[in-house]
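Here is my example:
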Amino acid sequence: MTHAFRSKLLVRIVSIGAAAGLTHAACGDGGSGGAGGSGAGSAEGGAGGDTLTSTSMGMPPYDSQQNPCYDHAALGLTSAVGAGGAGGAPGVVCPSSAEEGDLLWTAIHDEFSGNCGIKLEGMELTQTETQCCYAITVTMCVTTGRPMTVDGAPRSAPVRRGAQSTGWSAGVSPELASLDAATRAHLAALWARDAAGEHASIASFSRFAIELMRFGAPAELVEGAHRAALDEVAHARIAYAFASAYAGTTLSPGAIALPASLPLASELAEMAAGVAEEGCVAETIAAAIVSERAQLAGDAAVREALATIANDEAGHAELAWRTLRWALDAGGEVVRLAVSAAFERAIAAQLASAGCSVQERAEAVEHGAIGASDEKAVARAVVHEVIVPAMRAMGLGDPRVEA
C-alpha cells in the first residue's frame, strides 16, 4: 500500500487548514445460437445463429445514457432469423435474460462492471428494429477524475470504436504479447472507462471554474480549475491510447449528452458541499487508488502513466481542499453545516462503493487493474489517515465513519 503517497497528500492538504489557524458484451445462450423464426402454418423456422460467448464481442458500443447497445448483426442475430414459411415473417429476438449468473449477465458485467467504476445491479432489455439495448441499473464505484453530474447523475461520452482519430490519444506502448484475447478485452474496457471518466472531468472542471467566478473566488482558484481541466485532457488522451492499444483498434469519445443550459450551484453552501463530496473525498481517495495501481503495475508504460495521473489527481484534490478553505471563510456557519453533512454522505458512499471491483488476475494487475481488497483497503486508509485529519485541521470535527 502506498503509505508514502498518502503521507505526502496529508501534509499538502492539512497545511491548507493549518495555515488559516483553524481548528458490459451481451450475447445469446452459449452453445445454442439464436432461435429460428417461425413461418405460417407448418413451415419450419430457420437455423440458429452462431454461438456467442461472454468475450467474443469485445467492447460494446454505448448509447447517450451509457447503456450497452448492439446491432442485431453484431450479435449474429441476422443469421438466427428463420426463413419462415408461406406468409411467414422473419423475426429477431434479442437475448433478454437478466438473472445474475447467466451468460448475458456475466457478459455485460465483465465489460461494464468490475474495475470500470460501476457495479452492475440489474438490467432490462429494450429492443428496437435494429438493436438490442439494455437499460442498466448501477452503483457508481471509485473512479478516476472528477465526475460530471447533471441532477445528481453522472454523464460521460459513449465510446466510439474504429472511428477516425480526433486527437484523443497519446503515444503509449504497453507490452501485449503475453496477454490473451480475453485479458486484452477486459483491459480495453477498464481503460476505456477510465478514459470516459477523465474526459467527463474536463467538463466538470470547466463548470467548476464558472461556479467559482459566480461566487467571487480568488484568481488562483479559478486558474487552478482551468489547469485541472487541461490535466484531464492529457489524462483522457493517455487512457484512450491504452484502451485502443488493448482493443487493437481506435477508441475515442463521442458526444456527451448534456443539456443546453447546465445547472449551476445556486448558493455558495451548495457549491462547497459539492466540492467536499466530489473533490475532498472522491478525488482524494481516487488519487491514492491510482497511485496504488501504479505501484502494483509491472508494465513500465502503464506504471509511468498511472504515476503521472496520480500526482496530478493529488493536485486536484488539494485544489478542492483550498477551495473549501476559502468557502468556509467566506460563507461561515451556513457553509460549515452544509459541508459537514456532505462529508458524512460522501465518506459513507465511498466506503460502500470501494471494493466493488472484481478480484483481478495477475496479468490484469500488471497492466493497471486493482483488485477489490486492495481498493477497499486504500479507500479506508485514506479516509482515516488523510480526510479525517484534514477535516480536523479545518475545524470540521470528526465525521461518523466505520472503523
Q: What stands out?
A: The CA atoms of residues 28 and 95 lie 6 Å apart. The chain is about 50% helix and 10% strand. The two ends are 18 Å apart (CA to CA). The first helix runs from residue 3 to 19.
